[in-house]
Design goal:
mainly alpha; rRNA_MeTrfase/Polyamine_Synth; Methyltransferase
Length: about 70
């Protein structure tokens, strides 16, 4: 999957409508999330066919990105 395609898919995900700092609800936008996961896969081969766990996942953006790149 190409980077821009990944970013586009992530842009369709619903984020926190009113994030609460006291609950540490920090949304990870599609631009940074797509680049983080894309780099982990293409530079380090750390995503595809690997088990990926997104602890403290919030909106699940990183987990969804990993799943789109064939993570388990």
């Amino acid at each position: 999957m190409k980077l821009k395609q990944l970013e586009s898919f992530l842009g369709d995900l619903q984020q926190f409508s009113n994030p609460k700092v006291e609950l540490e609800q920090y949304p990870t936008g599609p631009h940074i999330a797509s680049r983080m996961i894309y780099t982990a896969e293409n530079s380090f081969d750390d995503i595809g066919n690997k088990i990926v766990v997104d602890f403290g996942c919030g909106c699940g953006t990183l987990g969804a990105a990993a799943a789109l790149l064939d993570a388990g």
